[in-house]
Amino acid sequence: MMLRSSFQPGLSYVEVLLAAVILSILIAAATQLFGNLARSQTIITDQDGAEFLALEMTREITRRYYADPDLNRVLGVEADEIGPDRGLWDDLDDYHKLKNCPPVDRWNTPYKNLAHLTRSVDVQYVAANDFTQIVVDDQGFRAVTITVSDGAKILTQHTYVIPNITPPYYVTR
Ligand SMILES: [Ca+2]
Ligand SMILES: [Ca+2]
Q1: Taking 60 as the threshold, does the pLDDT of residue 170 lie above it?
Q2: pTM (2 decimals)?
Q3: Distance 95 CA to ligand 1 centre (A)
């Protein structure tokens, strides 16, 4: 009587199991890689958007007067400049404590792709001999700080010190 060989062609159960484990590890690694790439792309897009918003606000603010030409000026928006948008704002401190989420342009049109970001502005007097020192009296210099954040995370922040001179390029609109 001939003995039957125990050898069977094809994959054994252990080999199939091992292949399944390796495949699941590869899938998990690929999933993580694509997840990281997507997150990275979102971070880059947000950072670019934040820089755009900061630059856009810088351009707008630096075209305003250092102080309102009206003698009845106030810290903030003067009564006759209150409206549906920022179209009548004409001096730096009109922007003090401005905070928009979603960010909007001067005519109150929101930036749809950046709606999750918050843009804020803070205007302070600073010492003539030390721009890092906030003071209460006007020494001829104001610091304008523009911040763009995503929730509690600050994406970008720019501070500009603006002297008390009327910019020759001042425009009202
Ligand atoms: Ca004003
Ligand atoms: Ca004002």
Answers
A1: no
A2: 0.78
A3: 9
Distance 30 CA to ligand 1 centre (A): 55
Q: In this structure, what is the dihedral angle of CA atoms 54, 60, 63, 64, given to the nearest 10 degrees?
A: -100
In the reported structure, the alpha carbon of residue 73 is separated from the centroid of ligand 1 by a whole-number distance in angstroms of 7
Residue 85 lies inside a defined structural domain of this protein: yes
| Centre of ligand 2 from the C-alpha of residue 45, in Å | 34
Is-cis flag, bond preceding 102, omega within 30? Answer: yes
Q: Quote the domain boundaries for residue 128.
A: 33-163
Count of domains forming the chain: 1
Asked if the structure places residue 105 within a domain, the reply is yes
Express each pLDDT in 57-92 by its tens digit. Answer: 999 999 999 999 988 888 999 999 999 999 999 999
Output the six-digit token pair for 90. 């004409």
Whether 158 and 145 have beta carbons less than 8 Å apart is answered as yes
Q: Evaluate whether residue 168 is within a structural domain.
A: no
- Residue 88: nearest ligand to its CA? 1
| 9 assigned to some structural domain | no
**Separation of CA 119 and ligand 1 centre (Å):** 20
